[in-house]
Amino acid sequence: MKKITVLIFTISVISxxxxxxxxxxxxxxxxxxxEESASQEVVQVRTEDTKGQKVNxxxxxAKETKWTLSPEKTITAWTYNGTVPGExxxxxxxxxxxxxxxxxxxxxxxxxxxxxxxxxxxDGIPGVTQDAVxxxxxxxxxxxxxxxxxxxxxxxxxxxxxxxxGLYGTLIVEPKxxxxxxxxxxxxxDEWESGTHDDGSENHDGGMNMGxxxxxxxxxxxxxxxxxxxxxxMEDHMQSDDNSMMMHDMSSYDIYTMNxxxxxxxxxxxxxxxxxxxxRFVNAGYMAHPIHIPVDYKVTHVDGQKVNNPQVEKSSILxxxxxxxxxxxxxxxxxxxxxxxxxxxxxxAEDMRMDVVYEDGNGQKLEHATASSEIDxxxxxxxxxxxxxxxxxxxxxxxxxLGAKMDMDEEMGMSWTINDETYxxxxxxxxxxxxxxxxxxxxxxxxxxxxxxxxxGHFFQVLSKNGQPLExxxxxxxxxxxxxxxxxxxxxxxxxxxxxxxxxxxLHHASSGMVAMMKYNNFEEFYTDTGKVDNQPE
Length: 538
Fold this sequence. Notes:
Strand content: 35-45%
Oligomer: single chain
Radius of gyration: 22 Å
Number of helices: 4
Shape: globular
CATH class of the largest domain: Mainly Beta
Helix content: under 10%
Low-confidence stretches: 1-22, 26-42, 199-246
Number of strands: 34
């Protein structure tokens, strides 16, 4: 285990770009950047060159913060450095990222670097790669940012609760030669429950005492009957002391935000006519959000990875699932201000929107264009050479059947399963370094639940959807949303030895069992869970 150290603030300070709590923007106007940065809490404490390699050191403090979500709602959030989302960490490809995490909360925490291919030692998974950082202590993560893209970071200790409370932020890795845009904004999507995080007396279900389940509530709608007992009868017997037995009522999320704020609390995104604008969307919540961008745009990256020669999308809906990231670009044509909004079914979705306003305009607002269609992940750009094809010979092939079942061993409840088992009893995917690996993912859940499956430490290529090979731009991802009845084949090169999680990023599902391990054969173990810390990797 990595040595725990005391945090030191005596090193000279160099400010980073604006925090994610307000929309993060990079433009060619460096004076404006400096002015904006000066008003933010400083997270970067040191930059130095070591043997020609730049080392960027950051301090992240996990702590409670009073946070205003909307004009009507202020909560006690869990934050990195006092903002939701936490501070943006921005570096260039090839640079070293060194992060000192200090825990000033009353519970253990960690940081997982979502989507970043880094050494297994730095993955931030309590009970798998490290002990969770206990209150009052500091832990240091260090890795080289080799792959440019849009990433994010979050606690992986009891994630279903800690992300719900706001413990996440974004990581931007720029290409070595920089980004060819005039404006660069990050928009983080999330949903909240108004009955939580106040004084601990209210629960996710609106007031029912649910024991130690950290606010999870029962979602049985549409589940029908099982084992001869009606759902109504089963609900009478349900207990929620054990996260692994329960399903969550997603309708309890009644506040939707971008960058930790509802529409009324957010500042508009500023552009000028002729600007090339990049928007980085990150879904830090547990629900897929259909985002409408009412202008012509291109999807340039998925999960940080390039789309080959992307086509123009005309006022299309872009659905973003938990854990996914999408970068889009458009040219500000000067025709008028417009609003980016969520087309979710719940009334609260109306608050998940952001205005784009011209600095040099006359205040004219475009009539909100009708959404033309929903973007198809499999048809984003032009065909190009890809790492894998369906005709390849694979060294290892696995099938992951994603489902749910009743669990009646101790208390009646619902578990989310992989191949009819729940973590830690799901058989691991075992690979050798250098293996070409194909995994078939099928959603056989009995209700309408989607499963955004996230593989740690690796990118994978999407080969097919429902038996049809992808024939357009290769799609490289680390998180793939598998909808009910869908089957995907994905492939990757086992080139990063370690013990890695492969799990659903609706963390209600992960905490209820939908987690597998991928283990490299002959990997030299570096961590042993001694039981001294209450590690909760799900």
